[in-house]
Amino acid sequence: MKLSLILAHPGPGSFNHAIAETARQTLLRNGHTVFFHDLYAEGFDPILPAHEIPKGAALPAEIVRHCAEIASADGIIVVHPNWWGQPPAILKGWIDRVIRPGVAYEFLEGDSGGGVPVGLLRAQMVLVFNTTNTPLERETQVFGDPLETLWKNCVFGLCGVNDFQRRVFGVVVTSTAEQRAAWLAEVEKTLDRCFPPAGPVSGQAPRMRIYAIDHIQLAMPAGEVARARDFYAVLLGLEEIAKPPELAGRGGAWFSNGAVTLHLGEEPDFRPARKAHPALLVEGLTTFAARLEAAGCTIQRDLQFAGYVRVHVNDPFGNRIELMERIGEEPK
Questions:
Q1: Is the overall model pTM greater than 0.70, yes or no?
Q2: Structural domains counted in the chain
Q3: 32 close to 72: Cβ distance less than 8 angstroms
């Protein structure tokens, strides 16, 4: 199947990005073609100029590509936060420029635009994943859940997609790492149910590939969990998560923020990893470096390369950790 996946959140480390990446990897694993767009990372221009409004108007190549993908998609997945009961402005601009006459809908002959349009989208299903910091009961009872009305009735219902499903995750700001991990598992399960694996072509072997990293394992000395917490939880801001009961007796500690998971395992003849290392993408690298230096860590500033600034720091046990921040990213 051809599936369109649209993400609208400015923070690369956000839970919205974790949702979108989980969805993308699940759909690819299931053998589908995925048209994925991270609108902020791509620098999508949300401004609809007057000359693009008429049906049949000349469009920039980027908008032509978006229109072709959404028109051919068998399913659509949209991921964004609830901001003031609305999608981010960049996503509203995507609707304005891409969900357009002749692509997603059209009016019957003789209708000057005052009637109900005919939907043109071929998608059989739409999934919308939202994050919120407003309890669901308040969102529904006080605000009327405007995002449900917008996506189900005002956008996709009018464009011919009647199978609409939406899941809201919240309250995100107070959620735990375990809760976010459970939400991501729910995203994967939902995608598997709605867009199950495509059957292998006759005569071919079943699809087999590596599609994601579940976690990174680092070693540590026995009996040093408190020091691991001080570094990974307090300084790096990761949350300690419970180990499965089957593994709890082995010692060590696990840390996660929903998007990145590190396992620290006790090793009797421990030796620090000074060359092999994880590289963690961060926001606010300068602040991270200052916090680490204030705690007595030595920051090693390495050679830089295009698109990133980066530093290295050793954890309390001497394991090398690289922190990287994207800068000046060109539209993709």
A1: no
A2: 2
A3: no
